[in-house]
Request: fold
Amino acid sequence: MALEFDNSGGAGDREEKPSPVKIDYDLCEATGVCESVCPEDVLLHREGFTQVVKGQACTECWICVDNCVASAITIG
Ligand code: SF4
Reply:
């Protein structure tokens, strides 16, 4: 499935650290669990789709990875 959305955590952020969070949309079941467990509001789930919206804020705590039922999130 081709990516139709920005998965990098924000455009125009070349001077900031890159987002470590990646969502594999071939695996994502769009449950929204990752948004609800992320303490940094990195992920946004709306209208059946989840995306990285504040990737630079990620602390690499792995909570979203541990809670994703589809193993669709990778960090690093
Ligand atoms: S690793 Fe932690 S801070 Fe980063 S997106 Fe996942 S839950 Fe949020």
Q: What stands out?
A: The chain has a mean pLDDT of 87. Residues 4 and 74 are 19 Å apart (CA to CA). The domain at 25-75 is CATH 3.30.70.20 (Alpha-Beta Plaits).
